[in-house]
Amino acid sequence: MCGINGFISLAKCNDDDRNILKSKIETMNDSIFHRGPDSGGVHIQTPIIFGFRRLSIIDLKDSANQPMVSDDENLVLVFNGEIYNYIELKEDLISRGYKFRTSSDTEVILKGFEEYGDQCVQRFNGMWAFAIYDFKKERLFCSRDRLGVKPFYYSVVGNELFFSSELKAIHAATGQTKANLQRVYQYLAYGYRMNDEETFFENCSELQPGTNLIIKNGKISTEKYWTLTKNMYAFNDNPDYHTEYEELFKSAVKLRYRSDVPVALLLSGGLDSTAIARVTDDLIESGELPPTDIHAFIASFPGFEDDETEIAREFIKTCKHIKLHEIRMDEQSISEGFEELIYGLDHPLFSFNTIVHNRIMKECKKRKIKVVINGQGADEAIAGYVRYISGVVLVDKFFSKGDFTKELKALNKNNGFSNKFLVSQMFKAMLNPSKAAYLRARYQEKILSFLNKDFVSSIDKKLKTDYKFSCNGQNLENYLLDKINNQGLNMILHYEDVSSMNQSIEIRSPFMDYRLMEFSFSIPSKLKFNNGITKVILRETIGKSLPDSITKNRKKIGFSTPFTDFLTEDTSFNSYINEVLKDTSFKSKKIWDSKKLSTVFKNPSEHPQFPFWRIINLEVWSKMYGITNL
Q: Pfam families from the entry (predicted)?
């Protein structure tokens, strides 16, 4: 895991320009030092300059440093991420006559590209963002992993293209101080981050998951090499879904322990992370993983109703090789990490839980942890968060003439949902999901009353279309695919990358293994959600060896936080908000009525918290980056 920066001239540049650009790349490297404190490097060779910061995890020797140049000096590579199946790929390449000078996955990418060209990415199982320049072909090839775990941003300024793992590096190189107003409006009004190329900075783009970017003869093009759809997984005749899922899951977990530094776990009392911990403990016990104690970390909220610490404690008692560390969360620890995290994200916060994740990463860093495994991706792949998917399932049952009444009763019985709540979820499910209608329906009218009318009217009309009902609703598979391909998951992955890399820590997620994803969308829906129960196939495989307190706990919590308490009580965070409101930067903003908003913040319990939480975030971000057009 590392940080990459780069520049390519889309036209001819002279030596004076190169010296200036070298200085810019070095500045970019400095701005993302936290992503790779172990070493750094710059490669200059017309028409490119590549920069790199390294967090050493696989092959710790200097010979594995980057930028890495091919044996014939024709290719140069910068790479951020991990190729988990690099050992198998290396064996294949050796059989084809290639020789290796390192034990790194970086060199596997380089030689894999020499052998297979652009198609090499189809062979990778991992997370990546990389750039390779071919001097003979005068061609730049960039790629981002299938699901977008690792970030890749770029910006074209005149005849120059800059790219980086973080927007702050591009900001440092280009001096961009204008916000993308459509993204700002989208954030304030709806509170979601769509999976598209737009960022909060004007003229800065994000390369999409499963996409390659190519520059040849000064022309930029992108091509999609992978998109998650239904029925991608190739089953044998008469497949045993449960056995195959369990084998794939264990393989995904085992691959993510490939590391030359210690690996830790993020734990909650939920099904996903404890399933990973259960498999980890079993793999160590069976000798399939090296004998060692694995450290697991959980956030503790004393006195908070949804605190899962006790469940985690009971589970750990069943493990032989996992040691639990509890991280106590309080108001001071939350407010102290707020500005640091916004700077790391390069945009305003969407989720309060991100602050908690950042705090956990700080504790891991204190214990010199470099790699952490978590349970991200299971909710989207095998149907978690029952309160949100319940409406989708009921709509599908109703319009497809399925057993609607049976499903309704099951949701009542297994999750304690009232009929009134479930009916409201059905109506929300019938709204166009790509517009994040739930948040919009609840908050849009209220928040827009505090925004400048000229600002609102200037935004593209496509962001303000009326609600659209679908007479046949949408089924569970389409809903989950939309969460992965268009919204939701991309935002969560971005948070996790930033909060971990801020502390020089790599996050790995077994559920994000593309094989598991393809498998999950090729099995019957009833193996995901059935009779009001989520993640059926996980419960019926790994879940059999977990305590009932986990497998029969229907309430999805995850890293839940007492959000309202922090905003409404007289805490250090509340004091921080008051200081923001007094600042001339907040009062001088043209896009909102600061006097009206100050009144709202004096009585936060009387208003929906999330929209006004977003305003504070936007103000802190815009001041931090010197944004000039708000």
A: Asn_synthase (PF00733), GATase_7 (PF13537)
If DSSP codes are grouped into helix, strand and coil, which group holds residue 98? coil
Assess whether 59 and 173 both reside in one domain. Answer: yes
Beta pairing partners, 155: 162
Residue 231 lies in a domain: no
443 and 581, same domain (yes or no)? no
Same domain, 349 and 453: no
For the residues 201-210, what does the mean pLDDT come to?
A: 96
pLDDT at 439 over 90: no
For the chain, the 3-state helix, strand and coil shares in percent, each to the nearest 5, are: 45, 15, 35
The overall average pLDDT reported for the chain is: 86
Neighbouring CB atoms inside 10 A of 52's CB total 28
Extended beta strands in 104-210, E state:
126-134, 139-144, 153-157, 160-164, 205-206
pLDDT at 215 over 70: yes
Residues 584, 514: one domain? no
In a domain, 204, yes or no: yes
Radius of gyration of the chain (CA): 24
Token duo for residue 345: 């994200």
**How far, in Å, CA of 457 to CA of 153, rounded?**
29
Which of 5-14, 420-429, 469-478 is predicted least confidently?
469-478
Residue 539's H or E segment, with its range, is helix 536-539
Q: How many domains does the chain have?
A: 4
Q: Are residues 126 and 216 in the same domain?
A: yes
CA–CA gap between residue 397 and residue 36 (Å, rounded)? 50
2 classed as catalytic: yes
Of 485, 518, 536, the residue that ends a domain is: 485
- Among residues 485, 509, 524, which one ends one of the domains? 485
Cα angle: 18, vertex 20, 26; to 5 degrees: 100
pLDDT tens-digit readout, 41-59: 999 999 999 999 999 999 8
CATH of the domain at 359: 3.40.50.620
Q: In terms of domains, do 455 and 514 share one?
A: no
Q: pLDDT digit string (tens) for 552-609?
A: 765 554 445 555 565 555 466 777 787 888 888 988 898 988 888 877 776 655 555 6
Pairing between strand 263-266 and 294-300? parallel
Give all strands (DSSP E) within 496-547, no chain letters. Answer: 506-508
The pLDDT of 442-466, averaged and rounded, is 68
- Sign of the Cα torsion 553, 558, 559, 563 reads negative
Do 61 and 197 reside in the same domain of the chain? yes
Cβ 425 vs Cβ 394: under 8 Å? yes
Cβ–Cβ < 8 Å for 360, 299: yes
Same domain? For 282 and 398 the reply is: no
Pick from 243, 229, 222: nearest CA to 163: 222
Q: Tell me the residue range of the domain where 162 lies.
A: 2-224
DSSP one-letter code for 608:
-
Say if 560 falls within a structural domain: no
Quick check: is 94 in a domain?
Answer: yes
Condensed to tens digits (0 to 9), the pLDDT of residues 315-366 reads 999 999 999 999 887 666 666 678 888 998 999 987 777 888 888 999 999 9
- Assess whether pLDDT exceeds 90 at residue 73: yes
